[in-house]
Design brief:
Elements (H helix, E strand, L loop, with lengths): L7 H9 L12 H26 L3 H31 L11 H31 L22 H36 L12
Helix pairs in contact: 2-3, 3-4, 4-5
Length: 200
């Protein structure tokens, strides 16, 4: 009786590359939850930018700063969780059938988004502490750091300029990110956007 055997080369390939599981076509629930929580909090923080401009009294500004640091602290926590899931845990993500140039642009935009999400809270905290402004999430914890060297206008202007530059860059990247999602949804209709929307 004949037995079907694989050629030696195929046996080696099978040993090296065991049967792979089907690739996922959607992000898992934790990925989606973190994505939309971060998106919502970013929207609140961007709206706060206009709130600062309308604040007149010093008391109003202090209240705005406390609210800003409260939302910013939660946002930073979610961003850290997202980074851990993406780069340390390396949770499985869907792979989409896109032209190579679209994949490169997508990777570039996502990389720049991650950079902004790290640098904006960092420069924001440094800006506040250098000017001895309150960093008090929900008025429960005082994270303010009083500078022993005193206030330095040049250093403050530099860090604040970086903070505002990263915010402006973030807004531009969000336009590209949202535009790309809508392009995949209505033009290519390839399931890229649906992979991150709520659902199974």
């Amino acid at each position: 009786m004949q037995t079907n055997t694989l050629p030696k080369s195929d046996q080696i390939a099978t040993t090296r590359h065991p049967l792979k599981q089907n690739k996922v076509d959607r992000y898992d629930r934790v990925y989606k939850l973190l994505h939309w929580l971060v998106a919502g909090l970013i929207l609140l923080m961007l709206l706060a930018k206009f709130g600062f401009a309308s604040a007149i009294s010093q008391e109003d500004k202090i209240t705005m700063l406390i609210g800003h640091s409260s939302i910013g602290s939660i946002l930073t926590l979610f961003i850290m969780m997202r980074l851990i899931k993406r780069f340390i845990i390396r949770s499985e993500r869907p792979t989409h059938n896109m032209p190579s140039w679209q994949k490169k642009v997508s990777s570039l935009v996502h990389g720049a988004l991650y950079l902004c999400l790290v640098m904006i809270p960092l420069t924001g905290y440094l800006t506040a502490t250098m000017h001895q402004l309150p960093v008090m999430p929900f008025t429960l914890i005082d994270l303010s750091m009083v500078s022993t060297s005193g206030y330095n206008q040049a250093d403050f202007a530099l860090i604040r300029g970086l903070h505002e530059s990263f915010i402006n860059l973030l807004m531009a990247l969000l336009v590209l990110h949202i535009g790309g999602a809508l392009f995949h949804k209505f033009i290519r209709k390839d399931g890229v956007m649906s992979s991150m929307t709520p659902g199974k």
